[in-house]
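Two quick folds needed for the group meeting slides. Do the first one here.
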Amino acid sequence: MTDWVADVRVHLKPSVNDPQGLSIRNALRTLGFGGVEDVRAGKLIQVRLSAANRAAAEQALDGMCAQLLANPVIETYAFTLDEAPATVP
């Protein structure tokens, strides 16, 4: 078994209203960042898991995202996956 670390990024689909993103955009403009055209807010979830190989880890992550980490009706997700660094005892 190999330990893996994944960064899962979840975002609202483009057709879904993003009130948090609008609030951030407006606040940035108020702070003087007038060039900000649009902001879409999302979430980053870090997952550490054990799997036999990369393909098994990717399959497990895809299942996690589809079943819990993202709402497929209104959100999209993508993840990066790397071998976890060795831990120091």
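Then this one, please, same format:
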Amino acid sequence: MKTIYLDNAATSFPKPEAMLAAMISYQQNIGGSPGRSGHGLSIDAGRIVFETRETLARLLNIEDPLRIAFTKNSTEALNIALLGFLKRGDHVITTGMEHNSVMRPLRFLQTQGVELSVIPCSPQGELDPEDIKKAFQKHTKLVVLTHASNVTGTIMPVYEIGKMIRARGDVLLCVDAAQTAGALPVDVGKMAIDLLAFTGHKSLYGPQGTGGLYIREGLDRRIAPLMRGGTGSRSEFEAQPDFMPDKYESGTPNAIGLAGLGAGTSFILEQTLEAIRAKELQLTARFLDQLDEDKNHVTVYGSGNAVKQTAVVSFNLTNITPSDAALYFEEKWGIMCRPGLHCAPAAHKTLGTFSQGTIRFSFGFFNNEKDIDHAAGAVRDLIQKGNKI
């Protein structure tokens, strides 16, 4: 049975051939520790790491590549931003559609004296920027929100919110781009983003264990590192370096992973973000159209409009649990998807799907129309079988 991979919101698969080739080449031909030695192989390793910074900066419209601190994922990046910036007495605003990578650090910070406002979203997971504006207080320091929901794919109005926040001048905007970096246009300048967390293993087509945090110039002085240690720089001092990106990059970096991330990001630039978005939008619309034919038996969550979301579709079937459906899709149809709460209980409470969750199909650039039709056929088959599976 052919495997149909529809879990790209968790991690993209397959990856571009160039990604694997870059990692193999690194291990076979370089292998040195970047910044930790003066020999040629160490210098070559450092060059690979810096070239990945440059490639990501091109994609995200970041003027200075050194404003990117590499992390192992977006979760670590968000922890640096939130735990390193917010202090007792500060007020932070977020939304009811956030992943636990945002909510768990914020809930912890609540126990440390940080005040939190969670702005409700519509039952479709959509956010009104005016609701953010109404939540501002005198001691508001930060707004943190996802660029697109990992549950419904709903794209949040980051541009409008960024413009509103920048007009205030005393509040920062932190964006969780785990689902959008490499899938949607992200421009930190035009979107007035102060802090941008991203992961490498989803739409950037890199390996797991890679990610990063963009920090706008000057803000690093206000954000403490999550950990401290060797950076390969200023080794004569026992104090942590205070400059980007070394301040946040203690320990030997995942250079082989960053080689893969650089190749994955280059693949996006070669294919163009516009072409990738167009294909994923077309696949999503095709699937939504077919689900609509069975709307009496299928509940689709989110906008139901491919233009307003990423290539993520969450749905439920009448009288069938998400876990039972996912097992059936894999065993009978070879479809790999994700049921449950998707590490985003706040989002499911917004949608009214807590605590059962949903079935999530998430498409990628390497899927095709046959995959979509196969998936739609599996849904129709399960509807016909009902709870007799």
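Slide caption for protein two: The longest strand covers residues 140-146.
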